[in-house]
Amino acid sequence: EGKRMVGTLSGRKAFDEELQKLEQNLMKLGTLAEDAICKAIWALQKGDMELAAEVMKNDDALDSLTETINEQALGIIARFQPVAMDLRLVSAILHMSTDLERIGDLGVNVAKTSRRLSGQKLIKPLIDIPRMGERIREMIDAALKAFLNKDADEAKLVCSMDDEIDDLDNQIFRELVMLMMENPRNIEQATQLILVSRNLERAGDHVTNLCEQTIYMLTGHTVKASDFRRPQTGPADD
Q1: What is the pTM of this model?
Q2: 48: exposed, middle or buried (Cβ count in 10 Å: 0-12, 13-18, 19+)
Q3: Dist CA 129 CA 133 (whole Å)
């Protein structure tokens, strides 16, 4: 009955069922990645070391789910030998799982920083770092929704949201450098907070990678997220 071919009716049904399981796992991975970022920032903000430890511990679950997704995806390719958009879809999930795992790793980096700063009074109230975290959470949600809804326009919109992440990163950098110049005792903590901001900026870039995969899956054309962002005309505060 041509089980290996997605073209047959029974083959198509089996393929769609396997694909649904794969997509469900990708959504789960998205939630774990979001949690890692949001909880790590909360731990930093509140000095909550239990929460920081939880983020670090949950990294194993994230890695394990990524591995499961990779095995599932490769199994689907071997069994059904999909072509055209079906193949691009499975391939997109393979790439996206890697980016979500990286976002989780960046959350772990933030959790480690919150442990390093444990017991220290923060040199300034954290306003822009939590804002970055909230935006990244919104971007991951929107990127995964664009993928599920097969909506290239939504994916392009998410790419443009990364401009705000970069603006916040630049703003944080400038503020912290000023605090370093005002008082050399601020240097150590300010450096750690700049690293947190850079980790979040990189997480934003990984979210735009998710969108690039969705657009490639739908169009067959490789795109760059920068195509859908404002032109870089020099320093961000021009």
Answers
A1: 0.93
A2: middle
A3: 6
